[in-house]
Amino acid sequence: MSGTLCGVTTIRAYNAEQEFADKFDSFQNSHSAVSWSQIVAVRWFGMAIQLLGFIYSLVVIATFILLQSGRKTYCSKTYCYKCTYILTRFS
């Protein structure tokens, strides 16, 4: 781009504007394709990590439920605190 700005009089003298415009469009298209691929990959990775965190939270909460169901004493405040902590920490 800087080469075209510095030599704009030469480009106009040889009527090469269309050639430089085509080159610029080509470079811009390849840059946009790579940029879009990166955006899609980052979003997919973020969603995959969130899904894994959600599944992990469900497994831990299910484990707490199964372990609490076998006990005679049941403290609902402690149980709710544990579940809330897990959901806020890992989701």
Task: Give the C-alpha Rg.
Answer: 29 Å
Q: Estimate percent helicity.
A: over 70%
Overall average pLDDT:
79
Gross geometry: rod-shaped
Secondary-structure element order, N to C? HHHH
Q: Please give the count of helices.
A: 4
Distance between the termini: 45 Å
Main beta sheet strand tally, sense and closure: none
Number of strands: 0
Low-confidence stretches: none
**Which structural class fits the helix and strand makeup?**
mainly alpha
Give the amount of beta strand, in percent: under 5%
Number of structurally distinct domains:
1
Produce the secondary structure layout.
Blueprint: H1 2-6, H2 8-13, H3 17-69, H4 76-90
Helix pairs in contact: 3-4
Q: Which labels suit this protein?
A:
single chain, 4 helices, mainly alpha, 91 residues
Protein architecture, described:
By secondary structure, this protein is an all-alpha fold. The protein has one domain. α3 packs antiparallel against α4. The longest helix is centred in the middle third of the chain and has 53 residues. The mean pLDDT is 79.
